[in-house]
Amino acid sequence: MKKTLLKYLAPLLLVLFFSCKDDEKKEHKETAVKSAVSENYNISILVDLSDRISIKKNPNPTMEFYQRDLGYIKSVSEAFTQHLKAKRIRQINDKMQLFFNPEPLDPAINSISQKLKIVIDQNNASKDLLNSINSNYASQTLKIYESAIKDDNYIGSDIWRFFDTKVKDQCIENKARNILVILTDGYMFYESTIMKDRNRTSYITPELIRKNSLNNNDWEKNFKDQDFGFIKIDTDLSDLEVLILGINPSKNNPYEEKVIKAYWTKWLTEMKIKHFEIKNADLPSNMDKIIKDFISKN
């Protein structure tokens, strides 16, 4: 009798067991989604306004590099607003801002950048405001790039100094998911921040890569053995996530892309940044999902 009862109960118990497991997984997934939605986003965008965006020096018949930047910023803005619209009003306490380093000489550009510092909480969140963010970011950033290109006086981009003196204070908030999106071709150079410490530098250029014999098949061995890289910044940025967009290596060296990414990877890792991605310049339509997946953690 017992054997007969077990014979019929066993399949039923198995069904109940796996059903409970599925429910646990579903509940865990739903909890994770709710947690992600309720997070406060603190998104910073650092724009490299060097001559990489010059349509004279670096023309691109497929799509100009400044237009690609605008497309990337559009995707970031859309990811930000999608996040806001998924939250309850009382949960909203989010920020998005845009930086340059150094600040452009054109006061109009600096004035526009102030309009792109968005702080939204339960006191000012409204449907109209949320619906205006994307169009506002698109129109204002277009003005910045058009002004920089018209001015045609590219002073470079001091990314190294930005990390050294500003990131900790300006891009990291307590109890927030801090994301820094950097729009750059991967090279770093600024005349007022040219430093060298053995084989570490505050800059990287095609000339430096050639000079250091990182343009051949032995580049990786040389890079490791001789400790090439950016000068270390003694700052713990473990609360920061970084997405680098627009890497555009010189076509004269087939190893250039790998060298640039090795410099950045080593530097970011030394600053204890755990979550980062480094992406080449591509059409905005191809980058849209990558950007939104990074920001939404999909």
From TrEMBL:
It comes from Flavobacterium hibernum. The lineage of its organism: Bacteria, Pseudomonadati, Bacteroidota, Flavobacteriia, Flavobacteriales. It comes from the Bacteria. This is VWFA domain-containing protein.
